[in-house]
Amino acid sequence: MIRYPILTFIIYSLCYVRKTFCANILLTEDLGSPSHQIWNYALADELVLRGHNVTILGPKSIPLEGHEKFHRIELEGLYSAHAFDSETLYSYGRLNNLQLINEYALFTCNHSLGTNGFRTLMNYPKDFKFDVILFDITVSNCLLPLSQRFKSPPSIGLTALLLPPHLSEAFGNPYQSSYLPHILFQFSNDMSFLERLQNYVWTKLEAIVKKYYYTPKSEEIARRVFGESMQPFDTLLKQLSLLLCNLSPGFHHSQPFTPNIIPVGGVHIDTKKKLPQDLQEIMDNAKHGVILFSLGSNVRSDALKVEKRKAIIDAFSKLNQIILWKFESQLSDVPKNVIIRRWLPQSEILAHPNLKLFITHGGGLSTIEGAFFGVPMLGIPFFVDQYHNIDLVLNRKMGSKLEYSTLTSDTLLSSIQAILNNPMYSEEAKKISRVMRDMPETAMERAIFWIEYVMRHNGTHILDPKSRSLSNFVSSSTDIHLFLLLLFVLLLYTSFKVVSSIISMLLKKKHKKTKKE
Question: Which pTM value belongs to this model?
Answer without folding.
Answer: 0.87
